[in-house]
Structure formats: C-alpha cells, structure tokens
Design a protein that fits this description.
Helix content: 55-70%
Number of helices: 6
Radius of gyration: 23 Å
Distance between the termini: 39 Å
Structural class: mainly alpha
Strand content: 5-15%
Strand order of the largest sheet: 1-2-3
Largest sheet: 3 strands, antiparallel
Oligomer: single chain
C-alpha cells in the first residue's frame, strides 16, 4: 500500500498510523521522533534537490542554485505575458526565493542519510521478530540514547509531567495467558 501512494505526506501519515497502532510507551516515542524529525527532514531536503528548478550563475560557479517550481513558473508566466504585449521580457528575480547549494551542503546531506540509515536499522531491530526480547530492548536503548533523541525525549517527558491533560503513551495489552 505504501509504495502505491505517490504523495509523500500520505506516505508519512501511513507510517505514523502504523507506529501508533503497534508501538507503545517509550518505543512509540522514540520511533515516532525518528520519523517526525530525522526522516521527515531528510525527505524534505531530498525533495528539494529532486523536484525544484536547478540553475547556475557565473558569480557562483561552484554552486547549484535551486528554486521552488511555483516561483519559477510565475516568473516564466510573467515573461510570456510581457512578450505578448511587446514589452521587454526581463523579469526581475527575487533572490530570496533562490537557495544556494554547495559541495559541503551535499556532503552533509550524504552524511545525514548515512546516519539516518543507521538509526532506521536500530529502529527495525527494536521490533524485528528474529531478535529476542533482550536484543530488541538493547536496540531501543541504543536508539533512545542517540544524541538526536535524548534532549527531545527529555522535553517530551517534562511536558507530560507539567501538563496533566497530556496523555501518556499507551501500554501494550497484557499478552500473558494468566499462567
């Protein structure tokens, strides 16, 4: 079902629904933070690189310039309209809508994707059935101790202590057979 969705937001909602339905307590908190912060941020940056309009400038020869397609389309439409009215076709560029990407930016993104891959492997290890309970708990502890999550988990716990209306994450149903 996930692969049939072409909309990134719908894919993330599907992942979050699965997380809410299957994970509980600290497990839920950590994995949802992974998806909502690390994964979502990397996806947004990737989407900019993949789908925004690319350009270059002689003034920035070692840079990639990217711009949101809607800004590019608006400039193009204005240019076409001016041509039809036999007006000069130069359309001023709002430099606030152009992002400059340099090699260190791409290197940082590659590093970020590598770290995300490591975190996702840890997350998978927290519920992989081939792992025993001890291994799953160790993976969850490693993931919880990742610098990306420690402060966010502490803030989440603090907000729950300070706001009695905030629901605590639910606990898994008791699956014991009573013996």
């Amino acid at each position: 079902m996930y692969s049939e969705l072409e909309n990134r937001a719908a894919q993330l909602r599907m992942i979050n629904s699965a997380i809410r339905a299957t994970l509980h307590g600290k497990h839920f908190d950590v994995v949802s933070l992974l998806v909502d912060t690390e994964m979502r941020g990397a996806m947004k940056y990737r989407d900019k690189l993949a789908h925004w309009c690319w350009g270059h400038s002689d003034e920035l020869p070692d840079s990639l310039l990217i711009r949101e397609p809607s800004y590019q389309l608006a400039s193009f439409a204005k240019s076409v309209k001016q041509q039809g009215q036999k007006q000069p076709t130069e359309v001023p560029l709002n430099h606030d809508t152009v992002f400059v990407i340099r090699e260190p930016d791409l290197d940082g993104f590659i590093k970020r994707i590598g770290r995300l891959s490591d975190l996702l492997q840890l997350a998978m290890g927290t519920f992989w059935k081939a792992n025993d309970d001890k291994e799953r708990a160790e993976h969850l502890q490693q993931l919880s101790n990742a610098p990306e999550f420690r402060s966010a988990l502490a803030r989440l716990a603090e907000s729950r202590r300070n706001d009695p209306t905030t629901q605590q994450p639910s606990q898994p149903p008791d699956q014991s057979d009573g013996s």
